[in-house]
Amino acid sequence: MALPHIRILATGGTIAGEADPAGDGARYRAGVRPVAALLAAVPGLDGVASLDAEQILALDSKDMTPDGWLSMLSAARQALADPSVDGVVILHGTDTLEESAYFLHLALPPGKPTVLTGAMRPADHPEADGPANLLTSVRLAASPEAADKGVLVVMNGTPYGARHLRKARTTGLDAFEADQTWTAAEPDGRFASLTPTALPRVDILPGYAGAPAMLIDASVADGARGLVLALTGHGSVPSAWEPALQRARDQGVAILRASRCAGPVIHNGNADDDGAGWLTAGDLPPPKARVALMLALAAGWEARTLKTRLPGF
Ligand code: SIN
């Protein structure tokens, strides 16, 4: 029987990292090793699936941009539309992995598996975790069980759904966690027919003791079309921010209350969101709420539609 065919899309990350020759051995550079070399370092991979690979980016994911998301989206959509491709695996840095994964989760058509993976140790580390993550990801992308789950992520040998995954620790192979198992993951794809050439700018503004309201005015003056407020507690808006938020709303800027804590920010819960014209994140953390808001604004959703159709609800 023919092996499943999986397309690998590489974007860089620690999984493609190598020791920095200019460093003292403690530092490395992400996104250096090309995808062909990463595949060649995984024994047995060619017995799991037939593969083709494309190097679409080669960066440290701290430098990922919305344009980079669009490049990934276009390459992944093209692969998934190809009848000879059974699934897609994307190699990505771990720092912004959850944002890219959630962006693709919202914007790719449900159906064939798409799996993102990365590594906490560079490719030339004696105990690199990338090869095992890559092997597990290809196995998962080749498996019918991974279909219709939306975008999945493999880290430390464990699959996660993109919606609930987060990087919770700066170091360690177990840096990622989720409050749901991947088998319970559900597809989304609500922006699967959207074909944006650029995404509107949405900024995340942090709430903290004494946070100045000028952050809001500066962001709007610099071109933001939406603001995600990463607020304290239950998404509590500092009183000193209210006039600047009103000015932003008057200019048509979308305002979304989120929290720097885990847990839901409930619409009209501890603020008059409807009165103020604010959106709320539900249980989405600020970086994922931003992704959803960018896509919603790109789709031209009106404020009323945004309120009822954003994924946090
Ligand atoms: C990156 O995000 O590209 C660097 C860090 C990592 O992949 O773990």
Shape: globular
Low-pLDDT residue spans: none
Strand order of the largest sheet: 4-1-5-6-7-8
Helix fraction, binned, reads 25-40%
- How many strands? 14
Beta fraction of the residues?
A: 15-25%
| Bound compounds | succinic acid
Oligomer: single chain
Q: What would you report as the Rg, rounded to the nearest angstrom? A: 20 Å
Mean pLDDT: 94
Count of runs of 4 or more consecutive helical residues: 9
Order of helices and strands: EEEHEHEHEHEEEEEHEHEHEHH
* End-to-end Cα distance: 44 Å
Described by strand count, sense and barrel closure, the largest sheet is: 6 strands, mixed
Judged by helices, strands and strand pairing, the structural class is alpha/beta
Walkthrough of the structure:
The chain is α/β, with parallel strands linked by helices and 313 residues long. It contains 9 helices and 14 strands. The strands form 4 sheets. It has a 6-stranded mixed beta sheet, with helices on both faces. Strands 11-12-13-14 form a 4-stranded parallel beta sheet, with helices on both faces. α6 links the parallel β12 (226-231) and β13 (254-259). α3 (97-107) runs parallel beside α8. It is globular. The N and C termini lie far apart (44 Å). The mean pLDDT is 94. Succinic acid binds next to loops.
